[in-house]
Design a protein that fits this description.
The complex is a heterodimer of chains A (about 550) and B (about 325). Chain A is of the alpha/beta class and about 550 residues long. Chain A folds into 4 domains: about 70 residues, Alpha-Beta Plaits (2-Layer Sandwich); about 110 residues, Fumarate Reductase Iron-sulfur Protein, Chain B, domain 2 (Orthogonal Bundle), CATH 1.10.1060.10; about 160 residues, FAD/NAD(P)-binding domain (3-Layer(bba) Sandwich), CATH 3.50.50; about 130 residues, FAD/NAD(P)-binding domain (3-Layer(bba) Sandwich). In chain A, about 30% of the residues lie in helices and about 15% in strands. Chain B is of the alpha/beta class and about 325 residues long. The chains are: A alpha/beta (about 550), B alpha/beta (about 325). The interface between A and B is large, with 53 and 49 residues.
């Protein structure tokens, strides 16, 4: 090539100048643990399934969700969503309504008949599960996914456990429950109803099972001594809710008093209202702050006209009336009777004082340790007896549906490992994606889509579901409020803001890669990453 | 509005890209096909705002003209760090002549294209604030006045950074530079000096004048695209923070540009034929201190004794901009 005057060299490209050598720190892509995932007792990858829901691919989102939890339609309704309490967005405007999107996905799956993928290979091992509640069914699902033969023995006449006999229909419609249980049974899981296991070990040995998972729940109502006249009408919450489910309408009368402060107490009071009671009063010994029932349920109950007497005990029950005593709380929080008595008109008194576990099936099993009425298990969910695992309400835990589901999953993983002569080790947990790593500038302001609630009057007419679901449009909107804390959601910011073109875009779903030949380590990509998915780490110099 | 803002798609149009948007709504920078007009390997400092702004603008111009542009570049950082003979980081036809004559060279190129009948080849002249506001100001005004078919882009980093951070007529009042030391009765650059070239450009009644910052890519792309759709003299003034000259952390480049806009100190607007037609609204208003504090060139304002006079002067300027350009929603 003939060169212009005074030019001796051909033009070259700057690419021969590897500016990466200037760098003292390098950016690296990381995955942090979003607070919602960290807060989920069932170990769901919430940010992971919301990612697919954001793009409107609900089926993929549902499959991602059910990798951990087979009951999105149920849990989307009944879980107290600790994920939302932990949500970083809650500190910006309002938490993402995770449960509402989850419920929407679950309902879509039922509507469209989405099914679980079947295992490629059978293991040839057989596992017995005792109890068809949330924990047992979840374990059955995960074990079936892993290729094991699963058989469930359930003492009751229907599957579902506390989902059916503890949670009223207005919170969980039964067609939803049936559909999600059936989907698990469709995987080839065998369910025997009305089969009570008397001895866990012999049931396992005689049936030729390689392992057993016990998840019988806690169904025996706790009692409190209340002097009662012969004609006093005293019932317990477990029986009231159970009768209702099996079709026997419990006779509660016009004025119903419920004694207790847990979710069951609230459920019974709301049920009584629906059965036609004029008055439903909850009597609770302590204060609102101390009440174990979930605030959202208390709020809904109050909106329906349920009255709550705080700091009150029941001292005497007679026909048609109760004697109650006011309590006061000391500075140290202990309760003291005040000696002030009152009478309260009541056609019936329902005790909702908690439940105990029926441990009969473990009586003759060696190595079992029982403490405080529940069975002790190791980190791997195994009891003191080899091959006998337990979970749910019968082991020490917070007694919620989601915790039970988490136990089922954890037990399934451990049983699978144990059957292969291995030990399951929890994969290392990444650091939490905290709010200070979020670059708030980039997110649109958008308030939560509030699920429409049935108005109080309509609710009183029956057991129709109180909280309505989202539709496809607002579910998408809600999913898109997710900040995707600590995990790349392909916003292209790093790819754009690099002054040195040192970020390579790998295409949809594949993310990005740094070109360390040219990255000067300025850190703009880290500062401008909306979700905090890039760390700056020192170079070895 | 310079571009159609999309809200509620997680990040809407605030981020560079967004996988949730339709492909035609996505930015040029988010595509794998962008030109990378200013390629890797250039010798700009870490976190250079000018390198970023130049690539944003040139890639958008390439996309808008189907790759038919010629660039005339003034002397300055952008020329020096991109093209140390015989290497160049430019992947577009590019010519450099002198410090003061980019606008004149651009006008000449436009005339040459007209003579050759190449109406599809468009000319862009560009430089820093020194070559725009000071040294090349005469040729620039001439180009405006003749309404030559050139888009002039000024990358404003508020000083002569290439030669060692001397003050220019675009340097902010009170800023410390190597020629306005932070000593004496009135430390830093004097209050009340300098000029704002976009308003001077508007006084020429040219078809299009706009300002932008590197904190808002969508805005830059929309403005460059608009400018390339018009003929005649056009001017875009882009604020590009300079970590070296401003004494700021290299990772704060985009954030500082955003603070300049959000405080009102740097108004982002569009004008047609000498009239302001639109402005980018402040989203989360901040006091000017938020912009000043992270920069060492303003450290003397926040010493033992806060320099209320200077801070107040700059805050008053921000408020004047807010009034003048309607930067807050009514």
């Amino acid at each position: 090539m003939e060169k212009p005057f005074a030019i001796t060299l051909d033009p070259g490209t700057s690419l021969s100048n590897h500016t990466g050598s200037w760098r003292t720190e390098r950016p690296v892509y990381v995955h942090r643990l979003p607070p919602c995932n960290n807060g989920c007792p069932a170990g769901e990858d919430i940010q992971g399934w919301l990612f697919h829901a954001e793009s409107g691919d609900y089926e993929k989102a549902w499959h991602k969700l059910t990798e951990n939890n087979p009951f999105p339609a149920i849990v989307g309704r009944v879980c107290y969503h600790p994920c939302e309490s932990a949500c970083n967005r809650g500190q910006i405007d309002e938490a993402v309504s995770i449960h509402a999107v989850e419920r929407f996905l679950g309902d879509e799956a039922i509507k469209k008949n989405w099914a679980f993928p079947l295992p490629v290979q059978k293991s040839g091992k057989r596992v017995l599960i005792v109890g068809a509640g949330p924990s047992g069914l979840t374990a059955a699902y995960h074990l079936a996914c892993l290729g094991h033969d699963v058989e469930i023995h359930e003492a009751g006449p229907m599957a579902g456990g506390m989902l059916r006999f503890g949670i009223p229909q207005y919170r969980l419609p039964r067609d939803i429950l049936d559909a999600e249980v059936k989907r698990i049974l469709d995987m080839g899981v065998t369910l025997h109803l009305n089969r009570k296991v008397e001895n866990a070990l012999t049931a396992m040995q005689e049936g030729g099972f390689d392992a057993v998972f016990l998840a019988i729940g806690a169904h025996i109502a706790k009692r409190a001594y209340i002097p009662a006249g012969a004609a006093a009408h005293v019932l317990n919450a477990v029986n009231v809710l159970h009768d209702l489910e099996t079709g026997e309408k419990p006779l509660l009368g016009r004025r119903v008093v419920v004694y207790g402060g847990g979710n069951s107490a609230i459920d019974v009071a709301r049920t009584a209202k629906r059965l036609g009671a004029d008055e439903a009063v909850i009597v609770y010994r302590r204060t609102r702050d101390a009440m174990p029932a979930h605030p959202s349920e208390v709020h809904e109950a109050e909106a329906e006209g349920v009255l709550i007497r705080w700091l009150t005990t029941i001292t005497q029950a007679e026909e048609g009336e109760l004697t109650i005593e006011k309590m006061c709380m000391d500075d140290d929080g202990s309760l003291q009777p005040t000696g002030e008595f009152e009478t309260l008109q009541a056609d019936s008194l329902v005790l909702a004082l908690g439940q105990d576990v029926d441990l009969g099936l473990l009586e003759h099993v060696p190595g079992i340790e029982i403490e405080g009425g529940v069975v002790k298990v190791g980190e791997n969910m195994m009891t003191g007896c080899e091959g006998v695992f337990a979970g749910g309400d019968m082991v020490p835990s917070e007694r919620t549906v989601t915790v039970g589901i988490g136990h089922g999953k954890l037990a399934a993983r451990n049983i699978h490992a144990w059957l292969n002569g291995e030990t399951w080790v929890h994969p290392p947990r990444p650091a939490i994606a905290t709010l200070d790593r979020i670059n708030r500038w980039y997110y649109s302001e958008a308030p939560k889509v509030v699920q429409p609630e049935l108005d109080a009057v309509r609710r009183m007419n029956g057991f129709e579901e109180v909280v309505q679901g989202l539709n496809a449009d607002n579910a998408l909107f809600e999913a898109r409020r997710c900040l995707s804390c600590g995990n790349c959601f392909e916003c292209d910011n790093c790819y754009g803001v690099c002054p040195d073109n040192a970020v390579k875009k790998l295409g949809p779903g594949k993310g990005f890669e740094f070109d360390y030949d040219f990255c000067k380590g300025c850190g703009i990509c880290v500062a401008e990453c909306p979700c905090g998915a890039i760390d700056m780490v020192p170079e070895d110099i | 509005m310079s571009h159609q803002e999309v809200k509620f798609y997680q990040t809407g149009t605030f981020t560079v890209g967004n996988r949730l948007l339709d492909p035609e709504q996505r930015s040029v920078q988010s595509t794998e096909e962008r030109t990378n007009a200013l390629n890797s390997g250039h010798r700009a400092c870490q976190g250079c705002g000018e390198a970023l702004g130049a690539r944003y603008a040139m890639d958008a111009a390439m996309a808008a003209t189907n790759g038919q542009i010629v660039i005339a570049n003034a002397t300055g950082c952008l020329e020096v760090f991109s093209t140390p003979y015989p290497e160049t980081a430019w992947q577009v036809p590019w010519v450099h002549s002198l410090f003061g004559n980019a606008a004149a060279v651009g006008a000449g190129l436009a005339a040459a294209m007209r003579v050759k009948g190449k109406s599809d080849v468009r000319v862009i002249a560009q430089g820093g604030d020194g070559s725009t506001a000071d040294i090349g100001f005469g040729p620039l005004s001439g180009m405006f006045e003749r309404n030559d078919d050139v888009l002039f882009i000024c990358y404003d980093n508020q000083g002569y950074m290439n030669t060692g951070v001397q003050r220019s007529s675009a340097t902010l009042p009170a800023a410390r530079t190597s020629t306005t030391a932070a000593v004496g009765k009135r430390p830093g650059h004097q209050l009340g000096m300098g000029k704002f070239v976009p308003e001077i450009a508007m006084a020429h009644h040219i078809p299009y004048v706009a300002t932008a910052t590197v904190a808002d890519l969508r805005d830059i792309e929309a403005k460059v695209t608009t400018a390339m759709s018009l003929r005649g003299a056009r001017y875009i003034h882009i604020l590009v923070p300079c970590p070296l000259g401003w004494g700021s952390a290299s990772h704060d480049t985009v954030r500082l540009a955003r603070m300049a806009k959000e405080s009102g100190l740097f108004p982002v607007f569009e004008a047609r034929d000498g009239e302001v037609t639109d402005s980018l609204k402040i989203r989360h208003q901040v006091p000017v201190e938020e912009f000043l504090k992270p920069q060492k060139r303003f450290a003397h304002l926040f010493g033992k004794q806060r320099d209320e006079e200077a801070i107040g002067f700059l805050q008053a300027r921000a408020e004047r901009n807010i009034r003048k350009y309607h930067l807050l929603e009514a």
